[in-house]
Write a structure and sequence with these properties.
alpha+beta; binds glycine; D-amino Acid Aminotransferase, Chain A, domain 1; 26% strand; 3 domains; Dna Ligase, domain 1; five-stranded antiparallel sheet; 435 residues; binds adenosine monophosphate
């Protein structure tokens, strides 16, 4: 089979790496891909990465990629990024007879519209923070005053993971809501906002591979969104992740499947927009059980980098079964091991950062079976690998225990160098410090 992976980050490198292990793959392509994928996949210089808000431009990119895929005889396409999904890449490919794994635009609303997903959860009684949606500032402010702080204000649309503001003070909540609705923060993504109850607890993510009616969950994962150790500082796209996260016990895992994932998939089906693809459940483990913080309609980055190495199945088998509505025929075989990813970032990220720093040391890791380095923001310049993004590398390692996986990951980090390399030293600390 000829398989195309859409995207260019660490998540997509992990997808390419895992798919490359399938004996049924004749050739892999990545659009646009990155230098880390080049030994495994042909890089296709077509980008589908315009924000979903710039509809026409994104549409043109999707058309161009579909033209290419038809011409090349691509048998299956796997999509990484949320913008392409929210922009209808799956609908378009399907209309043109191309097989593709991911949710349709209507199904991707579970991520692209918080108002949609919150209303759905409320309607069918899925546990989540109590909320109200607003498009008008005066009503939002009145509601915030009535509820009091702490309270959470969110842009409804896609905002690169930065659209949620946890407000400990009333005044902050009011000004955040006013700013978002005035279009000052997050542009059109903030033309509708969700104001919701503050939930206390530990956060964990559960990923479900879905075929519209059936689903299979992966190992529970925890990512590290804040830039500094101890979860301090501004949020990033994710500075590291590990699995399995012991916080989601097997009992809570089952509860999440039964009370959250199954009813949401059934409701999506009932609404005529069945969800096929990866349902990312961001959960808060509250005193009253797991509650949904948010849904995403794709793999997490860097969660994908730690979940795929644990899966012993052929990923192609799983994805094909999902596209064909036959996930009930598959069982996920997870290695009884742990996996940890430490993100090496450019100094200054998530604010401004330099690019073009030479990266060295990766050669010393080739041939290692416990460690793999996924590229996120890298580029080849005159045959020298250099940094080209905020998150540069996802240094990933397996181990028999989380402790071993952490040690293996940091051993690999120590072997890699670029000027200004920054990474957290405490990835998986929550698991290691459990009583
Ligand atoms: P979101 O963009 O909805 O995933 O939110 C980003 C982050 O804000 C989450 O990972 C949580 O840490 C925090 N957060 C979001 N909603 C809530 C809530 N209702 N209560 C407490 N923290 C929240
Ligand atoms: N790691 C968080 C995300 O992918 O949204």
């Amino acid at each position: 089979m000829k398989v195309l992976v859409v995207g260019k980050g660490g998540r997509e490198h992990a997808l390419v790496w895992k798919l490359a292990q399938s004996p049924r793959i004749e050739k892999l392509y990545a659009a646009p891909g990155n230098p880390g994928m080049a030994p495994l996949a042909e890089l296709v210089p077509i980008r589908v990465d315009t924000p979903a808000s710039e509809r026409e431009k994104l549409n043109a990119e999707i058309h161009k990629l579909a033209d290419w895929a038809l011409n090349e005889g691509i048998d299956l396409t796997v999509v990484g990024p949320d913008d392409a999904l929210a922009g209808g890449i799956v609908d378009h490919f399907q209309q043109r007879g191309l097989k593709i794994f991911g949710p349709t635009e209507a199904a991707a609303r579970l991520e692209s519209s918080k108002a949609f997903s919150k209303d759905l959860m409320q309607r069918i009684g899925v546990p989540t923070a109590v909320h109200r949606s607003f498009t008008d500032a005066d009503s939002a402010v009145a509601y915030i005053r009535q509820q009091g702080a702490p309270i959470v204000v969110k842009a409804s649309g896609l905002a690169a993971g930065k659209g949620a503001v946890v407000c400990m003070e009333l005044e902050e909540a009011i000004s955040t809501a006013q700013d978002m609705l005035a279009g000052n923060a997050f542009g059109s993504a903030g033309s509708e906002i969700v104001v919701e109850e503050f939930m206390q607890g530990e956060e964990v993510s559960l990923f479900a591979l879905c075929d519209g009616s059936h689903f299979l969950t992966l190992a529970p994962a925890q990512d590290h969104k804040a830039i500094f150790d101890g979860d301090k500082g501004p949020n990033t796209g994710g500075m590291g992740a590990y699995a399995p996260a012991p916080a989601l016990t097997s009992e809570l895992h089952r509860e999440t499947e039964e009370r959250i994932i199954a009813p949401v998939l059934a409701e999506m089906q009932r609404m005529g927009c069945p969800f096929t693809g990866v349902l990312y459940c961001g959960l808060m483990l509250t005193g009253e059980g797991p509650k949904v913080v948010e849904f995403n309609a794709r793999f997490g980055d860097p969660e994908c980098q730690i979940l795929l190495p644990l899966i012993q199945n052929d990923l192609l088998d799983i994805i094909e079964a999902a596209c064909d509505g036959q996930l009930d025929r598959i069982q996920i075989d997870n290695a009884p091991r742990a996996c940890v990813c430490v993100v090496m970032a450019a100094e200054g990220y998530p604010e401004s950062y330099p690019k073009g720093m030479a990266i060295s040391g990766l050669e010393s890791l080739t041939g290692e079976t416990e460690q793999v380095v996924f590229h996120a923001g890298t580029e080849l310049r005159d045959e020298q690998l250099v940094t080209n993004g905020g998150r540069v590398l996802g240094v990933t390692a397996l181990g028999d225990t989380i402790h071993d996986a952490v040690a293996n990951a940091y051993k690999a980090v120590d072997a890699i160098h670029f000027d200004g390399a920054y990474y957290r030293r405490d990835i998986a600390h929550k698991a290691l410090s459990r009583p």
